[in-house]
Amino acid sequence: MSLKNQWIISITMIILSWLSLPFYGWRQFKRFLPASMLIVVFEAINVKLVKNKKWWIFYNKPNSYFNNEFPFNIGPFIVSSLWGLKWSFGNLRKFLVINAAINIFFAFIYITILEKIKIARLVKINKFQFFLYFYYKAFLLYGIQYFFENKTKLLK
To answer: What are the two backbone dihedrals, phi and then psi, of residue 19, each rounded to the nearest 5 degrees?
Structure first.
């Protein structure tokens, strides 16, 4: 796939993700955005660490974070984090089930689509390991949001 087509797909993916947010609510957006942003920063750091291990590759060059993983992080990753928190914060079991469903979709279905259209593919990890790579961050996301919600109680 050409770099131009990859950019078109990336921009479309970001726009489609963010188009769901008018249905989200401003109050919830302000409430859950800080934790979601922190988890995106954490994911960016993770990408830097695992990129050298070649867990996955993107077909097009240049092979940089901003051309490859960044559109996924500021598109579906942050928006799915926001929606997961909105739908289930306060009920850890429900939150983990919703995140498992989102991450299963991404690790098993979406990555298959990306492989078929020659954007990215997994190399040194399988789809279940890719699922676990994303899923463990659900615990961190919930913990960060829990801290923000209860920071006055926790800091005393």
So the answer is: -65, -20
CB 13 within 8 A of CB 73: no
Q: Say if residues 89 and 32 touch (Cβ distance below 8 Å).
A: yes
Q: What is the pLDDT of residues 27-59, one digit of tens each?
A: 999 999 999 999 999 999 999 888 889 899 988
Residue 56 in 3-state DSSP? strand
Q: How far is CA 11 from CA 18, 60, 75, 105, in A?
A: 11, 16, 9, 20
pLDDT digits (tens, 9 = 90+) for 12-29: 999 999 999 999 989 999
Q: Is residue 18 a contact partner of residue 75, using CB atoms and an 8 Å limit?
A: yes
Residue 84's nearest CA partner among 106, 68, 67 is: 106
pTM here? 0.89
